[in-house]
Structure formats: C-alpha cells, structure tokens
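User: Here's a chain of 252 residues. Predict its fold as tokens.
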Amino acid sequence: MSVTSTFLLLLALPSSQGWGGELVAVRSTRTTRAAPVRMAAVAVKDFEGAAAGECDVALKVAKSGAYILQRKVVAEQANMRLGTACSKTRSDVRGGGRKPYQQKGTGRARRGSSRSPLLVGGGVSFGPKPKSYRLKMNKKEKRLAISTALMSALGRMNVVEDLDPHFDMPRTQDMRALLERLSVDTKNDESTLLITKARHENTYLSARNIPYLNLRTLDNINVRDILKAKKVIVASGAMDVIKGRYGEEASA
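Assistant: Prediction complete.
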C-alpha cells in the first residue's frame, strides 16, 4: 500500500547579484509507503484446552520494528516513574542560623552556617527535586508499536474462548486448572500474559494470586508486557477487537 502526495517546492534561482534571484515553483511528487500488513495463523483452543481450529491474524507491522518498540518501551518505563524524590538544600534544613564559631583565631576553616553541604547534617548539593519524566509519543506510533509487538508474539500465542461465562465466582483453582490445560507452567517462572476484552471481577480475582500471570484488558495493554511474556493467551472477544483496531481495516 502506498500513498502519493504532490507538493510545491520553491527554488531560489541564482541571479547576477548572487542567490537572491526570483523564486520558482516546482511541482514534485513523493510516494510514502504505509506500514505493511502481515498475516499468520494462531491456534484456537476451547475452555477445556482442546484444539478448535486456527485463527488468521493480520496486523500492521512497522518497517523499523526494533526502533519503534524500543521507543515505546522507554516511554512506558519513563512514564511509570513518579518523580517524587526530593532532597533538602541548605536553606531547607532546620537550624544553622547562627555562625558556628568566630571568623578568625581558631585555626579552622571559616564557617557561616552549620548546615553547609560540606558538613554532616547539612543540606545536599545538586540533589534530586520533584520533576516529571514523562515522554510523549504520537498516537499512531503507539498503535503501530503495539501492533508490531503482537505480531512478534504470534509464535507463542493462543486464542481461547471468552473466560467470563466460566467464572461465575472467584476461584483461583479454576484459573490454575485452565492454565495447566493450556500447557502454561507458571510454577517454573513461565511469565504469561492473559488479554481479555474488558475487566470481569471474578476473572480478575481468580487470576491475581497466581504468580507470573499478568491479566490485562485491551484498554491497558502495553509493549513491555507483551515482549516480556513467554506465552500470550488472548480471549476470542479481545482478538476480534485487536483485528479491528490494529488490522488493515483500521485507520492509518
């Protein structure tokens, strides 16, 4: 897929006095290629872990995939920082108003305050102060990064039917049994990402106490969790939304 755009380029032609001549409009054509769409098949399983066919997934993939993924991960980690670290300067430390000793005659270095950064109990020079570490990223770049990360995880991804009807009450044992049927071993530090369409209270309560299981909904998935997971499980309802949001039909 390619997008062709035409624009006018103003060129300054040389004159007898130098480069201050007249401006000439030149029509130029530029071709910009959109992100390609790749397709792959993902295994589909039912709630009992039995094979139920395959699902074709076609999502957009960035040409410079490693670059945009690195930018997204750095932005996510930077935006997680609170930036609340705060140290006291010599003006913030209590006390130190009186001159510790006389200026001359003691043989020691001159001091004007006992809260100097050079002394124990004094202020801190160039210490941290509250600030924001937030990094901005364009919305289209964010979506392309998530789409690229999802496509890179297709080899370790499974699609299962929606879990919400099967959890009418919070029960961790049922969730652990489901993971065992899907060949997921969280006991041996196999980090697993479970993506659902929306938050369901019983499903969330059933999964929160299982170590190395990360339950995410579509409104808070991120590249860092996708790349870190050794296995990715996607509910069928969430996969339909992913195809519409990051697929070929999605707006550029």
